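Continuing the batch. This is chain 6 of the set; chains 1 through 5 are on the previous pages. Same settings as before, nothing changed between runs. Recording input and output for traceability.
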Amino acid sequence: MRFFDWLRPGLRIKRWIIGCIIGILGISYGLALFITNGFEDIISVISGICLVGAGSFLMAISVVFVVRTFISAINGAGLNYHVDSKMLRTILIEKKYLDKGPRIVAIGGGTGLSTMLRGLKVFTSNVTAVVTVSDDGGGSGILREDLGMLPPGDIRNCILALARTEPILEKLIQYRFKEGMLKGQNFGNLFLAAMTGICGSFEEAVKKMSDVLAVTGDVLPVSTDDVRLCAELEDGSIVYGERNIALESKARSSQVKRIFIEPSDARALDEVINTIKEADIIIMGPGSLYTSIIPNLLVDGVAKAVRETSAPKVYVCNIMTQKGESDDFSAFDHIRAIEDHIGEGCIDYCIVNRGRINKDARLRYDFDGAQRVRIDAHRIINHGIKIVRADVIKVDKDYIRHDPLKLAATILKLINEEINLKEKKRMIEYLYVRDRIKKLASG
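Output for chain 6:
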């Protein structure tokens, strides 16, 4: 909107702009009386004081009513969102600190990554999710085969996790058709497919969808190449396709020995590499070890960028083992699997859960062949990796997940101790993060 558009009739803002101008003139004239006549002329002194006081009062009143006019316009514009001056002040203060928050790069995929992102956006607007593109199952796999596009499922979940949108719109994006030819398909996946057709590239489609849903931060596919995930099992057999890895491992009772991608020279987006280099902290996990986390690190350029960055590198260990992927794995086994694929020097910290798991949830997972991940702290510490113990668990209907806010608070505490507290210029960020963590803990 141009400046003169604010002067149109009906906006009730012209009177306060004029009042503000009169206030400025009054202050200016009052100060001029002081400068020209000094304090010798008592009449000039009194007149100057009155003019400065009245001008200041008029300016203050005008500013208050201009703000109220803006708020009234917002609340009366048909938007389902109402604010008052106190709320507006809170929003502006929070946005200021969120925009200056730590630059976090989260690498992974699946439910684990999107869960963590929901918590991180409470503390900073500078979150970048680097998402795997090797999914070939379910609705994503069908769209991948039919349209030749990258799998949209994990990308969609991460976009929604970072979105600031109405609940009904989130339900729409997550809606899965129950009947007809589209049975089993997700509306959000179709939306992203349509956007790809409009924009001409999957990368641009992700950015446009992020804009539509008012995403905090960025969501990036790790690569735009057509990446296929493959695995070699302990019995020597080769499995092709992400969806087949766990199935074949179970069927053959053979553990995954290593995974690899085709093409082996699939390149990471330049934006992914640059974001990793500029990050304050790198987070890997939580999520499926062999199908969500390691595949990203196998894309050309990613592991090298992670190793070479001076930012702390954190692995968020899974709470439970995963049948067909990490049977009987301890926390250190997870770390060793990552290092076996990309070498050492990629993990500085390991976050493990110390929260309690109720009996019903534990029995349910035992029935499915999954156990709580053993925390072999001595092996992790002896390997030169610092261990962070925290209650980061959430049990919902006997499903064990990471709690978004608990996990995010644990990560931000680590950032505060390792970055903000050591850099005096970031002391304000340190105090803000500490205060926010306390409020969340008490709330």
